[in-house]
Design brief:
The structure holds two protein chains of two kinds. Chain A is built from twelve helices and eight strands. Chain A is an alpha+beta fold. Chain A has three domains: 85 residues, no CATH class; 108 residues, Butyryl-CoA Dehydrogenase, subunit A, domain 2; 135 residues, Up-down Bundle (Butyryl-CoA Dehydrogenase, subunit A, domain 3), CATH 1.20.140. In chain A, a hairpin with a 2-residue loop joins strand 2 and strand 3. The radius of gyration of chain A is 22 Å and the shape is globular. By secondary structure, chain B is an alpha+beta fold. Chain B has a domain of 147 residues: Butyryl-CoA Dehydrogenase, subunit A, domain 3. In chain B, strands 1, 2, 3, 4, 5, 6 and 7 form a seven-stranded mixed sheet that branches. A two-stranded antiparallel ribbon of chain B has the order 8-9. Chain B starts with 6 loop residues before the first helix and ends with a helix. Classes of the chains: A alpha+beta, B alpha+beta. Chains A and B meet through helix 3, helix 7, helix 8, helix 9 and helix 12 of A and helix 7, strand 9, helix 8, helix 9 and helix 11 of B.
Chain lengths: 392, 355
């Protein structure tokens, strides 16, 4: 058991850190450290293409498709250095980390050739059509329908919480392709172009004043018959495999962002004297401990030989970081005091820490609420009986 | 990334788990709890099997002085397994005193003391020597709350700059075990009256090593105990039926067990992080130790409390083992600095001292 990375991995770290620092202090300094996912979209598309031009856009992919065949450790290191350099959140995270690996796993050669180059080049941005008004935590309850007609899939229904749909070129949609089917059976996984008459996007205003999520209405939306991953009716398997790709690699990069946020709270406490308050000191120490344990939990999770094995560190990770960040948001407000409740300008827009306080209320909801996480931990991690299902 | 057990470490973990499961049974622990005098809270047969049959008393001590070598990580694996069964034996004293002598003793002192500790023949305890009076190589004063102090043959006393070894078998020593809430690790008062004491060559290093070993040992014990509290409660929740369902199928119950697992996974990361940081000489070691002691003690207490609650009435009985875990957890919380103190040490590392 060892704490650090190998010297070969550290050499890789210097290589990517050097390049990222150079970009973020040079040509892309203007988008360094921007906080919101929806800001500076055109520049961030250029940034995606700059990453691609230097083969840093999808390093975990096979080199044949524009990647670097990077090991898990290298992907983790890149994510850490990416965040350390202050590079903005990847606008095509969903394309690179979710759609790409899923297409690599389930796609035909023709599908790979059709979809992967655009993701690798940073020219096609993807979004995720999973949740619906009545299928949030209960994703298998999707009602969006797909039928095959004249060589095309015709799709009708409504998706919700579609992050960045208004800037996306492609969307993957989970839809019911078998009339009268229920639950996970009869669901299909479709890859669709966003820019078409049958798709309408309406932004959803969030409690922090931003609008990164959308409602997506599909009204006779179309895609060619060969735009399905996996067999018709077999899409649940694909949809679940995709969620598994999300786990792990990006977490240590995300922790760099958390580190920056905690440091900002510590700086604020030292500047305004709250760092002398014994209760605040306890809470700051608790936050520091929580962040460190998050790091070593992630390293335990990523050091596992078999990434598909059910592992306690992995199962508990989501609720751990989401709760940690929500607590940090509350601590930030207690440290900052009333000043943090007044905006800097004339708009309902918030600087990093008050914005984190508000946004962290979403962290414990998206990607599986804390309550769903506890069910998963109890059922998969502890082997307890499953929740009884209501009548369908 | 290699933050996972090596094959050898996995084997040691399996071996010690099996050993304590077989030997540190509830019946034997309860027999030790009933004993009085020097044997109070001490299963001597367990100790001798641990030291001689298993040969693991020397884990984390240098091989050239009779130890088994290996690192403090392996010592933590032993403490974790012992903690899972609330084993009634003086492992804490061994860890603290053995590591203190290895770090701060002269070669002569190491040869004199370590072999007896490593083979389990000599029982050791450690104490903070507040208010102790030293004069001409003789120590006088009263030491309070010494874990397994009534059974100890030798005592490490540390005062910040100095550390002494005291042979408790000689004249001028009165050691009295108290009736202690955690009967598996009784606390003793030791009164010294002009007792000869041997100063360790490097007292500062000895004290630092003793505290590091003590904090890590307690954190690892707490991890093992918390995991056992969870495992036993999960097993119970699958058997016990109310309202026509196993109680483990109720969400209010499941979520509480899930919360235990969430904390335990972090406690596990804390123990292995702190152990590796010590073994690798990382500059994170101090922070990691304070983090591990505070986090694991709190986790254990939360899990042991839940163990009682989730067992219902049976969990409150003397007959059930839940109270052994609960009382051990409480004692770990207060021992060698409480969680608030350890968090304040973390605060000092990240914020500096209060002006």
């Amino acid at each position: 058991m060892k704490l650090g990375f190998s010297s070969a991995d550290e050499a890789f770290r210097s290589e990517c850190a050097g390049w990222l620092q150079e970009q973020m202090t040079g040509p892309f300094a203007d988008i360094r450290g921007i906080p919101n996912l929806g800001d500076a979209i055109p520049r961030r598309k250029e940034w995606e293409q700059q990453l691609a031009a230097h083969r840093w856009s999808c390093i975990g992919w096979p080199s044949a498709w524009g990647g670097r065949d990077a090991t898990l450790a290298q992907q983790v290191i890149f994510a850490e250095e990416y965040a350390r350099a202050g590079a903005p959140n990847r606008i095509n995270h969903i394309g690179v980390e979710l759609a790409g690996p899923t297409i690599l796993t389930f796609g035909s050669d023709a599908q790979k050739a059709k979809y992967l180059p655009g993701i690798a080049a940073g020219t096609q941005i993807w979004c995720q059509g999973y949740s619906e008004p009545n299928a949030g935590s209960d994703l298998a309850n999707v009602k969006t329908r797909a039928r095959l007609e004249g060589g095309e899939w015709i799709v009708n229904g409504q998706k919700v919480w579609t992050s960045l749909a208004h800037y996306s070129d492609m969307i993957f949609v989970v839809a019911r392709s078998e009339e009268g089917s229920k639950g996970p059976k009869g669901i299909s996984f479709l890859l669709m172009e966003v820019d078409q008459p049958g798709i309408e996007i309406r932004p959803i205003g969030q409690m922090n004043g931003e609008a990164e999520f959308n409602e997506t209405f599909l009204t006779d939306a179309r895609c060619p018959a060969d735009s399905m991953l996996g067999a018709p009716g077999d899409g649940w398997k694909v949809a679940m495999a995709l969620l598994a790709f999300e786990r792990g690699v990006s977490t240590l990069g995300q922790q760099m962002q958390f580190r920056n946020e905690l440091d900002a709270v510590i700086d604020a406490a030292q500047a305004n004297g709250k760092a002398r308050d014994p209760v605040i000191r306890q809470r700051l120490a608790q936050a520091e401990i929580g962040l460190r344990l998050m790091r070593y939990g992630a390293l335990r999770m990523l050091s596992q030989g078999d990434p598909s094995a059910i592992d306690g560190a992995a199962l508990t990770y989501k609720i751990q970081w989401a709760t940690w960040r929500r607590n940090l948001g509350e601590l930030a407000m207690d440290v900052l005091g009333q000043g943090a409740e007044v905006a800097d300008g004339d708009h309902y827009a918030w600087s990093t820490l008050p914005n984190m306080y508000l946004f962290s209320r979403a962290d414990t909801i998206y990607g599986g609420t804390n309550q769903i996480q506890r069910n998963l931990i109890a059922e998969r991690g502890l082997g307890l009986p499953r929740e009884p299902r209501g009548a369908q | 990334m290699e933050f996972a057990f090596t094959e050898e470490q996995a084997m040691i973990a399996d071996t010690v788990r099996a050993f304590f499961a077989e030997n540190a049974t509830s019946a034997r622990t309860r027999a030790a709890m009933k004993a009085t005098g020097a044997d109070a809270g001490f299963d001597r047969a367990l100790w001798h099997a641990f030291a001689s049959e298993l040969g693991l008393a020397g884990v984390g001590l240098p091989e050239d002085h009779g130890g088994a070598g290996l690192g403090i990580l392996e010592l933590a694996l032993v403490a974790e397994a012992a903690g899972a069964h609330v084993a009634a034996m003086p492992l804490l004293g061994l860890a603290m005193v053995g590591r203190a002598i290895a770090a701060g003793g002269s070669d002569v002192q190491k040869s004199e003391w370590l072999p007896g500790l490593a083979n389990g023949d000599v029982i050791a305890a450690a104490a903070w020597g507040e208010g102790l009076h030293a004069s001409g190589g003789l120590l006088s004063g009263t030491l309070s709350f010494v874990p397994h102090g009534g059974a100890a043959d030798i005592l490490l006393v540390y005062t910040g700059d100095d550390a002494w070894l005291v042979d408790l078998r000689g004249e001028g020593v009165v050691a009295t075990n108290h009736v202690t809430m955690d009967q598996t690790r009784p606390l003793a008062t030791i009164v010294l009256t002009e007792v000869g004491a041997e100063p360790l060559a490097d007292g500062t290093a000895a004290m630092a090593a003793a505290l590091a070993a003590g904090w890590l040992c307690l954190a690892a014990e707490a991890l093992g105990g918390a995991q056992a509290a969870l495992d036993r409660t999960v097993a119970y929740s699958r058997e016990r039926v109310q309202f026509g369902r196993p109680i483990g199928s109720f969400q209010a119950y499941k979520h509480r067990l899930a919360d235990m697992m969430i904390e335990i996974e972090q406690a596990r990361s804390a123990v292995y992080w702190a152990a590796c940081a010590i073994d690798e000489g990382s500059d994170e070691a101090t922070l990691a130790l304070h983090a591990a002691k505070a986090f694991c003690a709190d986790t254990y207490h939360m899990c042991a409390g839940n163990m009682i609650q989730l067992h219902g009435g049976i969990g409150f009985t003397w007959e059930h083992d839940a109270h052994l875990y609960f009382k051990r957890a409480r004692s770990i919380m207060s021992m060698l600095g409480d969680s608030q103190w350890h968090r304040e040490q973390v605060a000092r590392l990240i914020l500096g001292a209060v002006a």
